[in-house]
Amino acid sequence: MSxxxxxxxxxxxxxxxxxxxxxxxxLGEEVRNVLAAxxxxxxxxxxxxxxxxxxxxxPMVCEAIRPHVGQAPIDxxxxxxxxxxxxxxxxxxxxxxxxxxxxxxxxxxxTLSLIRDHGCQAGLVFNPATxxxxxxxxMDKLDLVLLMSVNxxxxxxxxxxxxxxxxxxxxxxIDQWMQQGGQPIALExxxxxxxxxxxxxxxxxxxxxxxxxxxxxxxxxAASISAMRAEILKADSLQA
Length: 240
Ligand SMILES: O=C(CO)[C@H](O)[C@H](O)COP(=O)(O)O
Ligand SMILES: [Fe+2]
Fold this sequence. Notes:
The protein has one domain (12-239): Aldolase class I (TIM Barrel), CATH 3.20.20.70. It is 35% helix and 17% strand. The chain has helices at residues 27-36, 59-69, 86-92, 108-117, 163-179, 198-203, 213-216, 221-239; strands at residues 14-17, 42-47, 74-79, 97-100, 121-126, 144-148, 186-190, 208-211. It has an eight-stranded parallel beta sheet with strand order 1-8-7-6-5-4-3-2. Helix 5 links the parallel strand 6 (144-148) and strand 7 (186-190). 46% of the residues are buried. The protein binds ribulose-5-phosphate and fe (ii) ion (FE2). Ribulose-5-phosphate (5RP) binds at residues 18, 20-21, 43, 45, 77, 150, 152-157, 190-193, 210-214.
């Protein structure tokens, strides 16, 4: 039996706007607007000026936007080192999913368990040059795999095409895992995702699409999200 994902087996697509490109002066309103425009998750980028060369937002901002997000998941992407101390803080602040980079944790298995123990879903993030071997022995502790399609630290960068074969490899691993009875694992892509490349990213196996500048950089959020969904549908129908 083939273990390669067929388009029919891909989970429904989710759009996760990154608030890194939102107007920080009115974040609550931005979050409400983007959800009303059809977003599924809110992607929350945490940078520490140590693991990555930029400094952004922390648990207090997560807590502040939580009432504006309603039932939608807050998808926290930690680009911080070390990781563990922030996990309980983000869980308390209303995070739904917490993902981290394996290079930033001394004990990856322990950090994944810590996230689940605090009632959140756990994700592992792979930089463009990070090998997939990191997921080999922790598949049962993963709810999400996040592939970086840029080097982390900044919004508005160009999508790295080397992400596509890597995506196909992760899709194959996840499908194999689930065929063996494992829990579902979401496959998210982050960096340089736009309406004009989202179809090939979908065809390679992604189910969750982070987009910052491609949504918040436009005046009509609903039009940007609809254009992305239309491209995803096209990709699915082309391969059906
Ligand atoms: O994690 C990130 C950067 O490290 C951001 O989520 C990502 O860059 C989104 O922004 P854009 O869609 O503009 O590339
Ligand atoms: Fe991110």
